[in-house]
Description:
Elements: H1 14-36, H2 42-47, H3 54-86, H4 88-106, H5 112-124, H6 128-137, H7 145-173, H8 176-197, H9 213-219, H10 223-242, H11 247-254, H12 261-290, H13 292-310, H14 316-343, H15 350-378, H16 381-403, H17 407-410
Amino acid sequence: MTQNKNQISDPVPPEIWHKNLVALWFGMFMNGLGFSEVMPFLSLFIATLGHYSSSQLSIYSGLAFSASFIVTAVVSPIWGSLADRYGRKVMLLRASLGMAVCLILMGFVTAVWQLIALRFIQGIFSGYMSNANALLATQVPKRESGKALGILTTGNVSGTLFGPFIGGILASVFSYRLTFFITGGLLISVFFVTLFFVKEHFTPVAKEDNLSTKQVISELSNVKLIFGMFLTTLIIQASNFSISPILSLYVKEIMHNSPQVTFYSGIVAAVPGIATLFAAPKLGALGDRIGTSKIMLGGFIFAMLVYIPMAFVTNVWELMGLRFLIGISNACMLPAVQAILAKNTPSNVTGRIFSWNQSMQAAGNCIGPIIGSIVSSLFDYSSVFISTALLVFINFLLVLNETRNEQRSVN
């Protein structure tokens, strides 16, 4: 494969991709918010839709929670293929409008099966994140992709982490149903921001000229590295989400059933987003200078050192401080994966590669809570943090092996 295949044939003026970065960051933030905002009260909302036993409520809540992620993992490659044929902007518009309609309709449901069905459909309309990354990756010069994609990633990460906190406030101030309407309205604003402010010059590709999966893989100069990054993404997300099922319960335990548990649980959930928001752009720029893989490996080591003491905290303030540090490690890891994919993927298959990566991210979102639930049921809440540190260690060894002989091509 020739070197120029990894470059964009028609450079995009900085003023265009700078404006796109701002608009797409807003879209990424709202997209993350829309997926996670309903999490704090989803099971409570389901309880209002009928008379269910505790076991039924757990099953329905689990289905509603995981439905979107499961479907996203399946359909993302399809949207990625269409993005490479018709352009990424049209996929962004499709995703934002579809998400908005689904959330608004959730506010009208009268039965639990309707809610679960809409969560499945919401997953079908996923793809904003992967297409935003792909669009920007094809416009930004490779030497600046780490910083640009680091900034973009903070949008989704921050939205996802702040979502439960904001959703809890909205649900308590207004109502469950009105929160769905508000969130849907926010995503309609994403549709219009994308429509009017995101610029893309794209020439549609004929169906017969669209590359097959085998041809896409043949376009890659380092197949092992790219697929290694997919697995890395899955493990990162599984690590981040493994503590989701027990985080509020852990806060309740260390606060000894204080009546302020709900408030502090929201803060503990949101704190990493604050750290990621400020750290990711700086770490992305540093990765462009010293090597993206070095930043990622450093993030893994730092995460291991932070997760282990979380298992032994004695008060909520210690947990908050350590969660803040986890936000810094997150800023090292996911943006680095996006940058490595961007630097090692030809622009003509960028949409497909980023969509495959989103599938792995969604799979990690599903696997993580399962791991956390199993570990906490077999042992205790503290053990979840130890098992998460072990997952990060496995990821560290994986990436170390993948990048040891590929430093020059990765960076």
